[in-house]
Amino acid sequence: MPIVTISKAAKLAGISRQKLYLNYINNGILSIQRNAKGKPQIDTSEIIRVFGELKGDTDIHTKTPVGQENYSPQTQSLLLEIERLKAENAGLKELSEERKNRIEEQSLRISTLESRFDRLLEEKSPEKTKPTLWQRVKSIKL
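Request: output the structure for the sequence above.
Response:
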């Protein structure tokens, strides 16, 4: 099912945004998800689950991109799917970049900790101690 903004979800549910937030989202009745930019969105299947049917502008499946009105319904459907996949791909690229940055940060932290550990080992290495009296006596050659 398509994922829509909170405003669009309120229209499809036939209620105001404020009522949608206060009575459904804040109470956990209607679940939301966040897009790659952190903006809240709602899957239309959630709206159907809670409200039973979609009201208002239910033409969310058949919106034709501008300039593509002359294409067949199958072609339009494929073009919409391509746009959806492009958006999903962009989100995955962003997520991948975030994880790459986290890995680089962790690598830097690890190398810093390793260098600190090496310095501590060098500082704590056993120092040459003075030989004991017995060791000095044994070392005397007659």
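The chain has a mean pLDDT of 82.
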